[in-house]
Specification:
With about 280 residues, the protein is an all-alpha fold. About 65% of the residues lie in helices and about 0% in strands. Helix 1 runs antiparallel to helix 4, helix 4 packs antiparallel against helix 6 and helix 4 runs parallel beside helix 7.
Length: about 280
């Protein structure tokens, strides 16, 4: 756990990783624009808007969930985003709203632009999860497996274990926990590779297909990772709030794929269907 990138300087590793994720996503997005013949410049403003709204939405959801525990005594700490404390689904929802508004104003085809962005989102997300690991948030269950890590004193895992009576306050580190941040980072990197392949094969013929694959793919990753996490999260019955949202995203992703395939089939019927002479 290294919350400070350089000791003595006000540069947080979490914020640094987020910046690297943004740069990497923009580089790949620019390359995809060149491959598809789109101008990258108009999308740069949208990417900035979505990144900013994503951070705001992720922070608002985190504050909503943990207001009484972390922010009620010091409301100004709400603005210390660089110290960690974001909920990805909160950011995703607000970024989607901004995306739809932008496309409506610009009169862009939403499915085509969405395919571009969802292809690079997992890449930025992977960097963000590495930042989570360095900060110590989003940690996993206590474990004695070889990959488990022991976060130091005052880390989120240490605080939760002290509050839960698992370790004494004099403990210099938390009990070893699963590094679910790194598990998710690896999983979304794999998802990025898959989506890149899917996008390059389908961007022209099946707009919206890549978006559906992203929604289903990430929802499945998040649903499984949630079983391994041990940080405090809201519950919806026996499931976490993240798992509940994941189920909804799976259905939404299926809808995107079905619409994409039906449109492709309809267009093929128009192109390859019988001529008037043949029908007569």
């Amino acid at each position: 756990m290294h919350p400070d990138l350089i000791a003595g300087l006000p540069i947080k590793t979490y914020g640094f990783c987020m910046a690297l994720g943004f740069i990497a996503a923009w580089q790949v997005l620019s390359w995809l624009c060149r491959r598809t013949g789109r101008a990258a410049e108009p999308l740069s403003n949208l990417l900035m808007l979505m990144m900013f709204s994503g951070i705001v939405g992720a922070r608002l959801e985190y504050v909503r969930e943990f207001w009484g525990r972390e922010f009620a005594a010091n409301p100004l700490s709400v603005f210390k985003v660089w110290q960690g404390g974001l909920v990805f689904y909160g950011g995703l929802i607000l970024a989607i709203v901004v995306f739809f508004v932008w496309c409506r104003v610009r009169r862009e085809r939403m499915a085509q632009v969405a395919d571009l962005f969802v292809t690079v989102i997992p890449l930025a997300h992977a960097f963000g999860r590495v930042g989570c690991f360095f900060y110590g948030c989003c940690y996993g269950r206590v474990s004695d497996c070889a990959c488990a890590v022991a976060f130091p004193r005052r880390s989120p895992a240490w605080v939760a274990q002290v509050d839960g009576g698992l370790i004494p306050e004099s403990a210099q580190s938390a009990l070893p926990v699963l590094p679910t941040q790194l598990f998710e980072a690896a999983a979304v990197l794999c998802l990025f590779a898959v989506l890149l392949f899917v996008f390059l094969r389908n961007w022209r013929k099946r707009p919206g297909f890549t978006t559906g694959c992203y929604l289903i793919g990430y929802a499945c990753i998040r649903f499984c990772i949630e079983f391994l996490r041990d940080d405090m999260r809201q519950r919806v019955g026996s499931l976490s709030i993240g798992q509940t949202i994941s189920i909804g995203l799976v259905f939404l992703g299926i809808a995107f794929i079905l619409v994409s395939l039906l449109r492709f089939r309809a267009e093929n019927c128009k192109i390859f269907g019988p001529t008037k002479q043949e029908r007569s």
